[in-house]
Amino acid sequence: MADEPSLTRWSFQDFKVYYDVKFGRKKAPEENDATVNGQTAGVLYNGNSSSVTSNGNGYLKNTSDMAIYEQYRNQDRGSSANQNGVSSPGFDEKPQKNLIPAFESAEMRTLAESLSRDIIRGSPDVKWESIKGLENAKRLLKEAVVMPIKYPKYFTGLLSPWKGILLFGPPGTGKTMLAKAVATECKTTFFNISASSVVSKWRGDSEKLVKVLFELARHHAPSTIFLDEIDAIISQRGEGRSEHEASRRLKTELLIQMDGLMRTDELVFVLAATNLPWELDAAMLRRLEKRILVPLPEPEARIAMFEELLPSPPGEEKLPYDLLVERTAGFSGSDIRLVCKEAAMQPLRRLMAVLDEKQEVVPENELPQVGPIKHDDIEMALKNTRPSAHLHAHRYEKFNADYGSQMLP
């Protein structure tokens, strides 16, 4: 028995099959019961059984090399073999849609797998009602993205949907929240892309990443590509002749892919957000046909935020919401949250001062309750918090008047 080979050692045939599977060089067998060394659809390595499944493109791949979400889908369908090599029911079931489409090379597939990590599966769970104010921006977004997906019959010919939408405005006003609300409402495949997703240190990879990104979006259509802080990716070209060649190639590829998207009928939307719209390249502004201003919150929106973040405790004096609204003109939604946080910290600070005077640590079950927020706490919070988004407010208004999309109430 000691002379028998160990199961944990690889034979030449096992290594050849694993190598072909990993690099996509083995064609899928015509028969479902193809065997390798007498074992059905499985390769033994390191003492573990790893099932080999087809990705629907004529190639085999190992389930250990799949993206996390693809493994989750296969587990739900019972399409993977268990550890003892016995296939579970539904093993031969054909998947509805592959996570990654067929690519011409293994390099492009590798890039697609890295971009697949930025796909948000499921709903971000952000409702339109959870965004206070911004009624004009919400109506324009519904008209540009939500309605064409729900009622495609009406959006044909001249009324074909806008493929590029730009959300611009001061920081902290809710541009990212609006994008998540679109993903929640439309239930589309949502690509959350930032500069780190498409910029690579390797020469030529950035352009390939952009190309693969749009191919993935077409494969998973209807889909939405959300480019956050797009000014970091495609600012104005040729400024002071200090632009790197790789940056210029990346911008050119993005413009080409956007232009090709506008000429097709596929429901793929590019939703971009920026705080500096005047720094975008003119060619990109042309492709971002729908430009929506996300302004600072109006008084009605501010009072709704304060009532939600700082509710008046029952039996206590009502908080001065009118004073808060009056003193927070020019504050963004993020600034208003900071004001509420600062006001809520004042009672806790008074309690912490009392606890610090005690020599021993108070047990958790004996800790006193935090007191209510008082009028003086509101005054202190307003005194200690400054707005962060009011410096360029006039520039956003001017840009909106020159380039923006507006809707009359």
UniProtKB/TrEMBL annotation:
A GO molecular function held by the record: isomerase activity
InterPro entries: AAA+_ATPase, AAA_lid_3, ATPase_AAA_core, MT-severing_AAA_ATPase, P-loop_NTPase
Record region (Disordered): 76-96
Top-level division of the source organism's lineage: Eukaryota
Location in the cell: Cytoplasm, Cytoskeleton, Spindle pole
Comp. bias regions, Polar residues: 77-87
Cell inner membrane is among the record's keywords: no
SUPFAM superfamilies: P-loop containing nucleoside triphosphate hydrolases
Name this protein carries in UniProt: Katanin p60 ATPase-containing subunit A-like
Cellular component, GO annotation: microtubule; spindle pole
Record Pfam families: AAA, AAA_lid_3
Keywords attached to this entry: ATP-binding, Cytoplasm, Cytoskeleton, Isomerase, Microtubule, Nucleotide-binding
Domain called AAA+ ATPase: residue spans: 161-298
